[in-house]
Write a structure and sequence with these properties.
593 residues, alpha+beta, DNA primase DNAg catalytic core, N-terminal domain, Dna Topoisomerase Vi A Subunit, Chain: A, domain 2, four-stranded antiparallel β-sheet, 25 helices, 56% helix, 10% strand, globular, binds zinc ion
Length: 593
């Protein structure tokens, strides 16, 4: 057991927090006044079994070390020492240093393994029949030898043990290979095999250019389509931006970055000569990635897929970028094309032209809000304004906020003087106009979402049964919990345990808030039948959301007197109404599924 684990095992977070905060028991948990923000009624809670704390007011949370770090303003090693003293565990200074040395050696070994693996994968492209087929696939996607070489693309053969054998022959030991995540062990623990099989391989480098992980795209119909390295001592997914090692200089020089979704998009843009591009591959943009980027430039053009998932990802990214004080523009390519397909079809000159003309995030959002609401009616104008205000209030600078609000009023032709005043005041005061103030941290999710989260955080069995179903059906699209459910599924698919005490690392600050809020729900964790019922609620919500969209489209079609489209939409709506009635009926009777 490491010294950290020893200290943690000997510690009760309730006692440690209790030294600073007056706690009282409430059900199985403890509550008190939050030491990190001003409050009169307690919204600070401690979970004795999960050994975590969470504030529903300001959203801060974590394990016992995080608490002491924040409370005493200490770096991690000092906080560890402080907690160890409190619980009477003697830290061996020598072992402490030895651990540090061992960590450094381990990291060095992992870098070597990844470099060797990158060379192996690259060599496979020309070496065998299937390797040449993979090369042909890349050529088909427009990638020349020069580009394949520059991005060090490679191929993982279907054999399943080729990399393992090759790395062993190169002198690497099995324990180190397992640690790298590139080599897995079968259930009986006897045979070892490659994580990546029959996949095109994209090496992922750290900021300094060392290969720290790989992304693999399935060549056939294998699932998942994209498989990533797991987190290791040298790779934290949320802290790496693909291609930043090469794009960094260009981003500084041009003072902006282009943010795309996938490896292929990134490679297509960069190899067409637009070098200042990075991708947030395999994860939605995180706060850590934004902070990393901010060291190069605070200006970003977000160029995600224009499909609905891409639009949702764009909006999530905008939220984070705005909160970190970034200047953001949005490039939505015409024809529903991602950057890769667009450049292949229209050429890089057309891409550069659109890039230069990319609207600011405010113009982009205003345009979308204007298209979704009927601006000929005052209610429509207010609804459109509110849709944009929820983003606008995240701009940290109050002067800038007020000015942006004036522009918004102008664009939406809000000519009512009082309304314009109200909009500017709301912007100054950082609140969205007619909506009530934002809900406390971690409670934006509905009860059904929180119940499901709690069920999955308490039971891996339920998680493994229901998370894939939910992803398949898309019942969480657009919900507050969407990203968190996706992370949980990713983690389970990669065989990673779900450690809630380290939620911030795998789910980001927002994800942690949601996860913790659900764990502090009262009552027993939901059982299978309750999970089924909650899932039905989400299905019904999804049908209702689709109904809303259809109704708006129908109104638009009728305004335009488009009879054919109206009839088509009416038929779709009738089908949807049937689904809705069926779901409602199922929900009404007690579930035994
Ligand atoms: Zn608080």
């Amino acid at each position: 057991m490491s010294q950290i684990d020893q200290v943690k095992a000997a510690t009760d977070i309730v006692k440690v927090v209790g030294d600073y905060v007056k706690l009282r028991k409430a059900g199985v948990n403890f509550v008190g006044l939050c030491p990190f923000h001003q409050e009169k009624t307690p919204s600070f809670a401690v979970h004795p079994t999960k050994q975590i704390f969470h504030c529903f007011g300001c959203g801060v949370g974590g394990d016992v070390f995080k608490f002491v770090m924040l409370m005493e303003n200490l770096p991690f090693p000092e906080a560890l020492r402080r907690v160890a003293e409190k619980v009477g565990v003697r830290l061996l200074e020598r072992e402490f240093e030895a651990t540090a040395d061992a960590n450094a050696r381990e990291r060095a070994a992992l870098y070597k393994i990844h470099e060797a693996a990158a060379q192996f994968f690259a060599s496979q492209l020309g070496a065998t029949v299937e390797g040449r087929a993979a090369r042909a696939y890349l050529a088909d996607r427009g990638l020349t030898d020069e580009v394949v070489g520059r991005f060090r693309l490679g191929y993982a053969p279907s054999d399943g043990q080729a990399l393992t054998r090759w790395l062993q022959a190169a002198g690497f030991e099995i324990p180190a290979l397992e640690k790298s995540g590139l080599v897995l062990r079968d259930a009986e623990g006897r045979r070892h095999f490659d994580r990546f099989r029959r996949r095109v391989i994209f090496p992922i480098a750290s900021e300094s250019g060392k290969v720290v992980a790989f992304g693999g795209r399935a060549l056939g119909e294998d699932q998942p389509k994209y498989l990533n390295s797991p987190e290791t001592p040298i790779y934290t997914k949320s802290r790496v931006l693909y291609h930043l090692d090469r794009a960094g200089a260009a981003i500084r020089r041009l003072d902006y970055a282009i943010l795309v979704e996938g490896y292929m998009d990134c490679i297509a843009v960069a190899s067409a000569g637009v070098e200042n591009v990075v991708a947030s591959c395999g994860t939605s943009l995180t706060e850590s990635q934004i902070r990393l980027l901010s060291r190069y430039s605070r200006r970003v053009v977000v160029n995600y897929d224009p499909d609905s998932a891409g639009v949702a990802a764009t909006e999530r990214s905008l939220n984070l970028l705005l909160e970190e004080g970034f200047e953001a523009k949005v490039l939505a390519l015409p024809g529903g094309l991602d950057p890769d397909s667009f450049i292949r079809r229209q050429g890089v000159a057309a891409y550069k032209e659109l890039l230069a003309a990319a609207p600011t995030y405010l113009d982009y959002l205003t345009e979308r809000a204007a298209a979704e609401h009927d601006l000929s009616r005052p209610e429509g104008k207010i609804a459109a304004a509110n849709a944009v205000m929820s983003y606008l209030v995240r701009v940290p600078n109050p002067m800038l906020r007020a000015e942006l609000a004036s522009r918004l009023a102008e664009r939406l032709r809000l000519d009512d003087r009082l309304l314009r005043e109200e909009l500017r005041r709301a912007a100054r005061e950082s609140r969205s106009v007619i909506k009530p103030p934002p809900a406390p941290a971690g409670t934006q999710a509905t009860p059904a979402e929180r119940q499901l989260l709690r069920a999955f955080l308490e039971s891996e069995e339920l998680a493994d049964e229901f998370l894939p179903v939910m992803a398949e059906e898309g019942v969480c699209e657009g919900l507050a919990s969407e990203a968190l459910f996706r992370r949980l599924l990713e983690a389970r698919q990669q065989g990673e345990p779900i450690d809630v005490a380290r939620a911030e690392e795998w789910a980001g600050a927002e994800g942690q808030k949601l996860a913790y809020a659900s764990l502090f729900e009262s009552g027993d964790p939901p059982d299978r039948s309750q999970v089924v019922a909650c899932l039905q609620v989400l299905r019904l919500r999804k049908v209702e959301r689709e109904g809303e969209k259809l109704r708006a489209a129908l109104e638009a079609a009728q305004r335009e007197r488009n009879a054919e489209k109206s009839a088509q939409l009416l038929r779709a709506k009738a089908l949807l109404d049937q689904d809705k009635a069926k779901l409602k009926k199922e929900l009404a009777r007690p579930s035994r599924a």
